[in-house]
Every structure is written in C-alpha cells, then in structure tokens.
Amino acid sequence: MTRTQTRQLAFELLYSLEIQKISNSEEEEQIAIFLKEQEVEEEQAKKYIISTVKGIEKNKTEIINYISKNLKEKWDISRISKINLTLLKLAIYEIIYSKVPYKVVVNEVVELAKKYGDENSPAFINGILANIIKQSGVVEES
User: Fold this and answer.
1) Residue 85 belongs to what H/E stretch?
2) Between 36 and 136, where is the model more confident?
3) Rg (CA), the chain
4) 63 FRET partner, CA 20 to 30 A, in 18, 69, 102, 142?
C-alpha cells in the first residue's frame, strides 16, 4: 500500500469520525472497525493511520487555531465543509507535527480535495495551507 493510498484511508477515517461525532472512548473501536472493513493489514499503514488520527485529536485545539487564523475576515470555521475541514486538519498535522515535506502533503491533499470536495475546495485548501506554511516557517530540507 502506497503512502498516497494510506493517506486517503486516513482521510476517510477522519471524515467518518468527524461526521459521526465519535467520542474519545468510542474512537479506538471505530478505528479497529475501519481498519478491518478496509482490509488494512500492513503494519506500517495501520501505524500511520492510527498515529495520524490520535495526533490530530491530541493537537486539535492548535490545529483549529491554525485554520481559524487563516480564514478571511468575517469567516467562521463553522462555514467550512466537513470535507475541507478534515483535509486541512490532516495536512496541518502532517506538515507541522509529523514533519512530512509540505510540497508532498499539499499536493496530495489538493488531489483529495479534487476527488471529494466541491469545485472550490482545491483552491481554498491550497490558499489556507500556503498561509500556514509561510507563517510557521516550515522549510523544505535539501
């Protein structure tokens, strides 16, 4: 399973948890059910998906702040679609906390936005992430 496929599965699980409003106590069970239903058997893929979901939950307040600070004036985070919000959370977590090269993350998340979001999703996500990358001082390593 490629990292791209694994990232897509992580997005699908995160989105599912987002729309179901799963509590922390139910999260473990939902992750296990998802991995079984999707037939994720590779340990590396399981580890990535689980650590990403738990990492986003652990850093949720900071991640939401990154998003909120980069919205246009008079825009509230509640106006963002669940798909776009989930994609932003995934990307921010990977860039800021997992230190995945931002060019890879932005490219793949924008592709997911094209697949799952509306026609404005790719540009919206790209714009928010570009601002966050500039502000956070994330630099590609040569």
Assistant:
1) helix 82-92
2) 36
3) 15
4) 142
- The pTM assigned to this predicted structure is 0.92
Q: Is 81 left (phi over 0), alpha (psi -120 to 50) or beta?
A: beta
The two three-digit tokens of residue 62, written as one number:
């900071």
Encoding tokens for residue 34? Answer: 């998802």
Q: At what angle do helices 43-58 and 3-20 cross, to 10 degrees?
A: 40
DSSP state, 76? -
Domains of the chain: 3-136 (1.10.940.10)
What six digits make up the tokens of 36? Answer: 């079984």
Is 109:90 a contact under the CB 8 Å cutoff?
yes
Instruction: Check if the beta carbon of residue 27 is closer than 8 Å to that of residue 17.
Output: yes
Sequence letter at residue 129: L
Under 8 Å between Cβ of 136 and 129: no
Would you state the structure tokens that stand for residue 46, as one six-digit string? 């399981």
pLDDT given at position 87: 98
d(CA 30, CA 3): 21
Amino acid at 96: I
CB within 8 Å of 51: residues ≥ 6 apart? none
Distance CA 116, CA 83 (A): 7
